[in-house]
């Protein structure tokens, strides 16, 4: 049989299934075959794992499993995932036997046998499901379903580890493709940007055009050959003169800067697109490669910074105040609790020194149990080798910005010749590399704290 023809045919079928009306997983209707039940799909997985038949037949079985799974409702999908986790885990008796054999011989053959015994058969099943065209993306969506059930079904944790292990290899940096996205990019991709934007919601097509079309705007995304035009992660960039400190001004645009006159590239929104790839790191590679791309295009750029949210600050401050560990002045407390600072310059003046001092303390001193910064965005950028450059307030007066951080935003700075040094300091010691102004602001927070703030 001509395998190229078969794969092309199956790819066409999978693509049409993903594009059918009503969403990617709408039930099959009309004269199509009835959906498979969980038991039938489980048996198909058993057969696929057992092998037998040729490659073409295995591809067809894998296609049947994935298309059948996509047609299940949420409860049935959970049942199917639970069966995979239970039926195809590692077998303790095989591990013990292989380990005993290895202890006796301690040779390469024994080691290989031990490694094979320790690997849950689920991993091989996932590899075989990945054989069919479109299989990789279907498995990514399957893991997204699984992650939604982990909290209430901890028995699925082993299956999730299998997904994560395989995805770390399938989506490693060597397979990722960086693409520049602009207003001329196909609409199918642009629609996905609107859908996946996770930091600053894109209101409509006009809003998207303001972010992509002007000469001083850039957007870059990582794609993977196995999942076509589905972005994995994208970053939106503004070219500016000076380092901006307000996101509403940046998003509004209007005062374009000629790229050759810009001295600063601002990464103002980074969005992961695929929930099923949680835990697979793309952002560090993306930022570093985009810095390289911009340096080649515009060698006069001197600053590479972010304008980042501080999503954990408001919650941390509320916890400290509730525990009696933070003493705001009455004027600052009133301004904060009534959000009066948004419209009242006097309230803003009373609040600013105390709020920014506490924010500096939060970003440099508030830690998780493992000694890393409590704030997730801080962990991301500091772990990538950036430094904490400047606090900006008020910088985001949207409802989300006020709810998460009382309007605070941060510039993290990426200095190409210091990225590795900063990364090493963070990795070894959890060091928060920051500007002197932020260190001074953090010291001013001490009189406001009744006891050292912890995570």
Topology of helices and strands:
Blueprint: H1 3-19, H2 38-50, H3 55-70, H4 74-87, H5 92-105, H6 108-118, H7 121-129, H8 135-149, H9 157-170, E1 177-180, H10 187-196, H11 205-212, E2 217-223, E3 233-240, H12 247-252, E4 264-272, H13 283-297, E5 303-306, E6 308-309, H14 313-322, H15 330-337, H16 345-365, H17 376-383, E7 387-392, H18 399-405, E8 409-413, H19 419-429, H20 436-443
Parallel strand pairs: 4-5
Antiparallel strand pairs: 1-2, 2-3, 3-4, 6-8, 7-8
Write a structural description.
The protein is an alpha+beta fold and 455 residues long. The chain is built from 20 helices and 8 strands. The strands form 2 sheets. It has a 5-stranded mixed beta sheet, with helices on both faces. It has a 3-stranded antiparallel beta sheet with strand order 6-8-7. Helix 1 runs parallel beside helix 3, helix 7 packs across helix 9 and helix 16 crosses helix 20. The N terminus is likely disordered.
Q: What are its keywords?
A:
20 helices; alpha+beta; globular; single chain; 3-stranded antiparallel sheet; disordered N terminus; 455 residues; 5-stranded mixed sheet; 8 strands
Q: Summary?
A:
With 455 residues, this protein is α+β, with helices and mostly antiparallel strands.
| Total helical elements | 20
Low-confidence residue ranges? 1-7, 13-34
Largest sheet: 5 strands, mixed
| Topology, number of strands | 8
The H-and-E topology, N to C, reads as: HHHHHHHHHEHHEEHEHEEHHHHEHEHH
The 3D shape can be described as globular
Terminal Cα span: 61 Å
Give the spatial strand order of the biggest sheet. 1-2-3-4-5
Helical content (DSSP H or I, runs of 4+): 40-55%
Structural classification = alpha+beta
- The share of residues in extended strands comes to 5-15%
Radius of gyration: 26 Å
Mean pLDDT: 89
């Amino acid at each position: 049989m001509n395998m190229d023809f078969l794969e092309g045919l199956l790819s066409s079928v999978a693509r049409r299934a993903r594009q059918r009306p009503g969403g990617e997983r709408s039930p099959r209707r009309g004269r199509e075959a009835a959906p498979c039940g969980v038991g039938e799909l489980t048996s198909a997985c058993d057969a696929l794992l057992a092998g037998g038949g040729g490659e073409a037949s295995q591809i067809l079985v894998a296609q049947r499993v994935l298309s059948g799974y996509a047609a299940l409702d949420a409860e049935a999908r959970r049942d199917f995932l639970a069966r995979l986790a239970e039926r195809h885990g590692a077998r303790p008796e095989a591990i013990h036997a292989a380990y005993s054999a290895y202890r006796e011989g301690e040779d390469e053959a024994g080691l290989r046998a031990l490694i094979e015994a320790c690997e849950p058969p689920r991993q091989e099943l996932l590899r075989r499901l990945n054989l069919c065209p479109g299989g990789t993306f279907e498995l990514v969506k399957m893991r997204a379903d699984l992650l939604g059930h982990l909290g209430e079904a901890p028995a699925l944790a082993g299956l999730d580890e299998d997904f994560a292990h395989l995805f770390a290899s399938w989506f490693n940096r060597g397979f990722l493709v960086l693409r520049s996205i602009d207003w001329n990019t196909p609409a199918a991709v642009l629609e996905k940007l609107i859908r996946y934007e996770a930091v600053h919601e894109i209101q409509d097509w006009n809003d998207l055009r303001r972010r992509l079309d002007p000469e001083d705007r850039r957007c870059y995304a990582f794609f993977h050959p196995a999942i076509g035009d589905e972005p994995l992660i994208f970053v939106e960039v503004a070219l500016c003169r000076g380092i901006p400190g307000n996101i509403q001004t940046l998003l509004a645009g209007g005062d374009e800067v000629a790229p050759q006159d810009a001295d600063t590239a601002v990464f103002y929104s980074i969005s992961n697109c695929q929930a099923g790839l949680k835990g697979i790191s793309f952002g560090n590679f993306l930022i570093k490669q985009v810095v390289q791309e911009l340096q080649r295009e515009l060698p006069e750029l001197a600053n590479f910074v972010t304008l980042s949210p501080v999503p954990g600050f408001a919650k941390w401050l509320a916890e400290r105040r509730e525990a009696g560990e933070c003493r705001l002045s009455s004027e600052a407390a009133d301004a904060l609790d009534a959000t009066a600072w948004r419209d009242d310059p006097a309230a803003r003046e009373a609040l600013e020194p105390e709020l920014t001092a506490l924010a500096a303390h939060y970003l440099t001193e508030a830690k998780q149990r493992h000694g890393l910064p409590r704030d997730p965005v801080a962990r991301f950028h500091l772990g990538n080798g950036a430094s904490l450059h400047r606090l900006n307030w008020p910088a985001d007066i949207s409802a989300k910005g006020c709810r998460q951080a009382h309007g605070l935003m941060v510039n993290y700075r990426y200095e190409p010749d210091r990225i590795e040094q900063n990364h090493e300091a963070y990795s070894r010691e959890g060091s928060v590399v920051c500007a002197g102004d932020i260190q001074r602001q953090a010291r001013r927070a001490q009189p406001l704290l009744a006891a050292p703030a912890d995570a």
